[in-house]
Write a structure and sequence with these properties.
The structure is a single chain. This protein is an alpha/beta fold. It has a 3-stranded parallel β-sheet. It contains 2 helices and 3 strands; from the N terminus they run βαβαβ. The radius of gyration is 12 Å and the shape is globular.
Length: about 80
C-alpha cells in the first residue's frame, strides 16, 4: 500500500472542490491511502469523508516543509 499525503491550504471551498480529484485518484489507485493535511479548523468537515483515510491538522504551513526528507513521516503514523 502507498500513502499519499495531500497538503492543501486556502479556503474550505478549495478543499471541497478538490474532493472529486481525490476520488478519481482513489479509483485509479484503490490500494493507496489518502491523507489530508490542512488547517485544524477544516479537519472536522473532511475527516469522515469516504475518500479521506486520515487527516493531519497543521495550522503552521511553514513548520512542516517538504524539502527536508524525514520531516513529516511521524505525522503519517496511525495510532
Amino acid at each position: 500500500m502507498h500513502l499519499v499525503l495531500i497538503t492543501r491550504y486556502g479556503g474550505l471551498g478549495d478543499l471541497i472542490m478538490m474532493l472529486p480529484s481525490i476520488q478519481a485518484l482513489k479509483v485509479k489507485y484503490p490500494h493507496s491511502s489518502f491523507i489530508l493535511r490542512t488547517y485544524q479548523d477544516y479537519i472536522h468537515y473532511l475527516e469522515k469523508h469516504p475518500v479521506i483515510d486520515a487527516t493531519v491538522p497543521d495550522d503552521n504551513r511553514f513548520s512542516l516543509g517538504m524539502a527536508e526528507p524525514g520531516r513529516t513521516e511521524h505525522l503519517l503514523q496511525r495510532n
